Amino acid sequence: MTYCVGLMLKEGMVFMSDTRTNAGVDNISTFRKMFAWDVPGDRSITIMTAGNLATTQAVISLLEERSKAVEERNPSLLKAESMFQVATLVGDTLKEVISDNAEEGQRADSGFNATILVGGQIKGGAHRLFMIYPEGNFIEASADTPFFQIGETKYGRPILVRAFDPEMSFDDAVKLLLVSFDSTIKANLSVDLPLDVRVYKTDSYECEHAFRIEANDPYYLDISDGWGGALKEAFGRLPDFDLNKT
Amino acid sequence: MTYCVGLMLKEGMVFMSDTRTNAGVDNISTFRKMFAWDVPGDRSITIMTAGNLATTQAVISLLEERSKAVEERNPSLLKAESMFQVATLVGDTLKEVISDNAEEGQRADSGFNATILVGGQIKGGAHRLFMIYPEGNFIEASADTPFFQIGETKYGRPILVRAFDPEMSFDDAVKLLLVSFDSTIKANLSVDLPLDVRVYKTDSYECEHAFRIEANDPYYLDISDGWGGALKEAFGRLPDFDLNKT
């Protein structure tokens, strides 16, 4: 499995993805699931993938190849005029890869499906975040639903639902995502560190902060160790239940 | 969907189940998923069900019918000599119902599967908790894994993993389950109040506390409202992240 989250903040966007892939519990590996296309001053695009690894790698390779020689190839992420066009392009590529695999050759035990988050900003437009389905269509984050999760989304959702606030700072947003990822990692073998992070400030047209959090990262360990205690304290402060009153 | 949890404590056992069933989001109903067979002084057995409602209702009806005229009918929950025999009987009944449906008649779009938690104590044995699979086989809770969840388990798991302690009191255990259920209810439409609760004290051979928590229960609302704030406070007390140090 996989866990990736994209947050829309007032200040900009924060993306985080894990790196664990597995084909059964006896075959786990580390693969990057976050990819970026940056043209400083013009655009910054971040893509995160969940699902069949062969599918997502093929999609990324096709998008990559088509953006290398921009003049010759079309369509390209580097020539798209809006984030909507970017999402359409990624959706079309995803659909193309899945149907190529599904229609021909051997039948697979598992599906070829994948889901993709695409976020960023292109000069002349707003910063936008899309979730792209295996069918190639997509939905966009809004003020009512300012974040998307893909992959193993359930364990880490309650803390996002309770504590996420689009007004929060980048620092707080990264911290919140680490708590959400830690809750998932503690409960599910199919999500694990290292974690990839990208932070995009609105109207900057470049990604100022792109980094990886390794398994032995001291701040991550502080959060992971501290959250158990903090939760127990929070639990202790809630009013007590009294069985004898039932 | 459904959410049910059974906890093994040093003091005894606590069971909680929701009551929402759905066949699509446009067809939701309230059904009890917790059932009990109590013979004060001899045995106290609690069963919670998740999965296809027709299957689980048939299983409960069969178990019920077979225990009504104990002298005539065998096997019966009221005659089983150990909790292991109870689990075997429930497993066999579940398997029988599923295979009856699966082998004959029309094919259904959805599966006939169900999963069942069975816990309790029979005089002469220890209190035990089992999770029964659709295939009729089962696993038992132990010191290493002292609780089982069935149904929509993921949202409510992180708080159980972090805060559950077999040494905790019944009062704290009910409070913890309410937090776990509230996290699930907040994130997923397919789980909802009222919640059924049963508390069994080891070697009491009767269930002293069996009650229902309604949607407007003031204590539940306190927990639900308070937990958001408590989580935010806990989050605030964790060390801050600083992007500029990455």
List keywords for this structure.
Proteasome_sua/b (chains A, B), five-stranded antiparallel sheet, 5 helices, 246 residues, alpha+beta, homodimer, Glutamine Phosphoribosylpyrophosphate, subunit 1, domain 1, proteasome (chains A, B), 33% helix, UCP009120_prtse (chains A, B)
Write down the overall geometry of chain A: globular
Round the mean pLDDT of chain A to the nearest integer and report it.
Answer: 93
Main sheet of chain A: which strands, in order across? 10-1-2-11-12
Order of helices and strands of chain A: EEEEEEHHEEEEHHEEH
Number of strands of chain A: 12
CATH class of chain A: Alpha Beta
Radius of gyration based on Cα positions of chain A: 19 Å
Structural class of chain A: alpha+beta
Number of helices of chain A: 5
